[in-house]
What does this fold into?
Amino acid sequence: MPKLVHPNTTVSTSRFLEALQGINHTGRPPIWMMRQAGRYLPEYRAIRDEAARHHNGFLTMIQTPELATEVTLQPIRRFGMDAAILFSDILVTASALGCPVRFVEKKGPVFDTPIRSPEALAALRPASDAVPHLQYVMDAIRMLKGVLDVPLIGFAGAPFTVASYMIEGGSSPTLSHIKRMQYNQPDVLHGLLSQLTDVTIAYLKQQVDAGVDALQLFDTWTNHLSVYDAQQLCFPYIQQIITAMNAYTSIPIIVFCKNTGVLWPDLVATGPTAISIDWGCDAVHMRACIPDTLALQGNVDPFLLYADPETIEKRVTRLLNDLGHLPNYIVNLGHGIMPDIPVAHVQTLVNTVKAWGS
Amino acid sequence: MPKLVHPNTTVSTSRFLEALQGINHTGRPPIWMMRQAGRYLPEYRAIRDEAARHHNGFLTMIQTPELATEVTLQPIRRFGMDAAILFSDILVTASALGCPVRFVEKKGPVFDTPIRSPEALAALRPASDAVPHLQYVMDAIRMLKGVLDVPLIGFAGAPFTVASYMIEGGSSPTLSHIKRMQYNQPDVLHGLLSQLTDVTIAYLKQQVDAGVDALQLFDTWTNHLSVYDAQQLCFPYIQQIITAMNAYTSIPIIVFCKNTGVLWPDLVATGPTAISIDWGCDAVHMRACIPDTLALQGNVDPFLLYADPETIEKRVTRLLNDLGHLPNYIVNLGHGIMPDIPVAHVQTLVNTVKAWGS
It folds into this structure.
């Protein structure tokens, strides 16, 4: 099923990897989209509908390397994105620790046994025993590396965001359980964050060994926290992960979090290669703030893709005129794409980027 | 039922009003809390349980001046807050326009006929005909002014946030209907925002006539928007309201919105007396950014009130040591208080502020 897409480009000359190094002089910035392999694509929905005949369709897609590979390739085939991101989920590390997640249509992830006690924490697998349970990810990476001709991005959820799902039991508008736990059971919370840090490091190392070309860490829910709390619960663990990975490999690491317009100095201090910014801050202002030694990724409003093609082209062209000439800028959304975005609007976004400057 | 609380202070010497003018030299900053009249108080729940015997208990509380007055007074009586805020809801302006809202326990506001077409917009009452439907608010204000000895804050929802509920049909994690409407039916959206602006101005003027001592505008959901979209959908309407109110009265106007850490320059430009900041930004940094001619209100993390009293005292004291000496600072939360916060923890917050510097 997987097949070669663009036989004329090679990973070694990728403008995506060059932008991460700050040396993209190809005339336009690279583009990829968070959640680009997803429900807005009819070819994705076809695979998903097939997988839905299994007990847990979404997990089946993630855990079957052939399906994960196919779904990862779909946006590359259709749009010629400049990078592929492994089709998986940030919560696989929680599952690997022995805290199983289910994905419920229209509701999202559900943990039937949330982690809210020392006993629940103690019952988790040690991090060292967890990663073998993620072998299917490595199989998908190796399969993808055999057929892809654009860089492959591996990823993991950052400890705070993964812990928030494990503790809340799923999505939550306020994260009030984890916020209570930091006061009522700080040892449990920091124990879980440490264990997630360990498993994330081991997991990302295996992804590197399997062949990914870049990594992205997702700490999506930092926007729920005060700056002080983010400094206690998020950044020390992100920094541990980045420090460990930088000691292990030279491949670039992108960090994504929300409330980037406020939290960027703390993010910079964690030592990543690039910062992926949300859509609530101004990209030009952020580029002026964040040191030039770090690449910048983002921050197209994901809801701009609801607009008519003319508006999309106009707004994206303005962004490109501002930042497109930089050697260290990557076009992306400020959050994952919504499932009800018309495919033609994504095509307009990609066409606008590819036509710019030529 | 309502009775005088602190016969020894008068509104004219209120540290709250002095802080808004930048002349508070009373030795400590004033304190009040967004949603201070609310479900975390047992005496509030007693009134609510009584009102629940009516068809729509929450609306009954809002629309019955005696009940609204009693509930407004409860946190003043219990904690001696430095200001009272009228017990009401930001969505009463929507109801007054003829778009009725219901409040459903554990779900929040529901609009059974959301505004999503030119016809739905056209069917609304003209703004000039709407305000008489809010007479019960003026009655509550007059009743409160007869018994209160701290300043009374009137308020309204800003047009974007009120419109978001009217268009989404209630609370929404993404506001995707209103975001689509700005592209698909911009005339309907801006028509609604204009009509809300008009009714808000008329409503706030009547609140001033009825005797409120200060006003607060709530544009809670600005954090869902890109800076560009907030500049299209929020700030022009806020500015219209503030300009109209400043031409009508000299009483101070506080503006609250989310993503303050990014949006503060646009907020400053709308011309308010004070900016109430969310809890996702650093208050000391914000005070350094926002011109001294504007007072600053906020930004205690509402979830800090889950902590033990010692932690609350320690963190609030740090904030006070940083900003408490300023003549233009007001202690408040960065968002409304959560309904499951222990009353004793609020008492700790208030005690810490009142004991500081003495």
About this structure: The longest strand of chain B covers residues 152-157. The mean pLDDT of chain B is 95. The beta strands of chain B are 84-85, 101-104, 108-111, 152-157, 214-219, 253-257, 274-276, 295-300, 329-333. Chain B touches chain A at residues 173-174, 176, 179-180, 183-184, 223, 225-229, 259, 261-262, 279-282, 301, 303-304, 306-308, 311, 315, 334, 338, 340 (CB under 8 Å).
